[in-house]
């Protein structure tokens, strides 16, 4: 009965908090299946949270490690932490957790630190903390370095050290400028560290708050927290620090605060009491975009509960889609949203079964039923039609084109011929139109009339050419009833060229159509110089003879006129190159060898005097240099040797015919295509 009453009370507290502020929502998650505890530490790895150590209400000290999976809302116990029992500190760098400091079972303060491998569920010691032993220290992580400082031991501390996991070393950093303390809140936001509040023996409670800059290794004071306290829970959500509960000499708190780092101000959240009871020494962490607080206690009680905090549109998921999908509208709009619960709370402040909306915005509904609090949200946007203008009606000259542009961000297009590109090229007269539809469903249309009524002038100054010194050339851009504009602003229809350069003219007719011509003219003192190279041999299937003489004409031996010639067979090739100053001729002999210049060696021969295959010899279609061949019988006797590829073996040794059998040959020659000496060996069968 007491448990039922407790959860009913918790349910009404959560519903009450939701009704106070629709932007923030708490809900209860699975409790730890073990005794409640304080003085734990926590970390997050691989989308799972871990709770380490703790102290129960009867004073038992624990080294337990529990893993929480938000996907299944379940807890699993892992390997015990080998370090302290009480008040350790933790941080995470690159998917590895580091836990250390605290006190052991008999109250000794520790300096040891351990790293945790989640996949192996294994703890490994690392370099010990170089500062004095302490517990309930402050931690934060910046740029891959873990910062640990403050805390209480045999001495009170303000010093900080940074851990480098790559080197497994600690480096001392600037000390906190305020008084020594333990149980302070700490966090990292946007590359800065934050530390504040806490307690020191006396007792003295603090509300001062500081920011650490790792670049300058310095601290600056910030706006103090509202009330001095120690052992509050904190987490960072969307670059915002949230602080909850804690205690001081007046008792235990049950409030919620948010720190705006940009404005350096503290804001109290109106959803007071969302953590079901006042407490201290409990943990906060961020997991998958939600904030969590775990455990904690008072002098007479310990808690094992886990509460989740998040924005209203991600904290809850409706079992069904009540409000529908996000939408948008154009023009006037009216829509009725309704649910079966007459006590539903709507974002407009209405309590009832439905609302009618007629303006853009974000709307939500919350329903309280036997399963708790459920919610759904819908976003309604107002679509805006984008004005489209294709330009004024226009007239083009024959042969001209025009590109119509209807480009709009996040839109689709439909032209008069059902084409769907954002651009349309016009090359004929007509009426052209386009309808542009945005993602919100708003459409705009535009059209343009285009006509053609004149032929553009025809301008041809000729091909680029080369003149001899002293020569001139008359360029003509003549068109009837036209005006002319040459590159030097001359306006005659003809232009006399007497020096090298690029010459251009724009010709415009009476109807406003224009065309431009261009020619590049070079001058030279010489006839063309032609050189096809030395006579050559190539391995492969072809050779390309290339000439590139500006303004020249070419005449090859087969009457072709290109500036290059593709040689596919051995032979003599010639070309005559001419320009205005004269002509020159050159020729070259080309020998083309097969792709491979390997020796061709038969596998058998029959020296029987019939005139067929009577001699064993090697053959090559390429020039053969440095040739040698040796032939051995099966007893290893050298029966033939020659350095002449044309000399073959007639099947005799010491003027005696050799018997039928297999003989071994070794040959060596210079392979022309490979450009190196090549050796081959094999066998040949002598037949009779």
Features:
mainly beta, 2 helices, Neuraminidase, Immunoglobulin-like, four-stranded antiparallel sheet, five-stranded mixed sheet, 688 residues
Structure, explained:
The protein is mainly beta. The protein has 2 helices and 57 strands. 3% of the residues lie in helices and 48% in strands. The strands form 17 sheets. It has a 5-stranded mixed sheet with strand order 51-57-56-52-53, with no helix packed on it. It has a 4-stranded antiparallel sheet with strand order 1-26-25-24. Strands 2-3-4-5 form a 4-stranded antiparallel sheet, with no helix packed on it. Strand 8 and strand 9 (122-125) form a beta hairpin. The longest helix is centred in the N-terminal third of the chain and has 19 residues, at 2-20.
Task: Please describe the topology of this protein.
Layout: H1 2-20, E1 24-29, E2 41-45, E3 48-55, E4 61-69, E5 74-78, E6 89-93, E7 96-100, E8 113-117, E9 122-125, E10 138-142, E11 145-149, E12 160-164, E13 169-173, E14 185-189, E15 192-200, E16 204-213, E17 218-222, E18 233-237, E19 240-244, E20 247-248, E21 251-252, E22 256-260, E23 265-268, E24 283-287, E25 290-294, E26 306-311, H2 312-315, E27 327-329, E28 335-338, E29 345-346, E30 354-357, E31 361-369, E32 372-382, E33 394-398, E34 402-405, E35 411-415, E36 423-426, E37 430-438, E38 443-455, E39 465-468, E40 473-476, E41 482-486, E42 494-497, E43 501-509, E44 514-524, E45 536-539, E46 543-546, E47 553-556, E48 564-567, E49 571-579, E50 582-593, E51 604-605, E52 625-632, E53 638-642, E54 652-653, E55 656-657, E56 661-671, E57 676-686
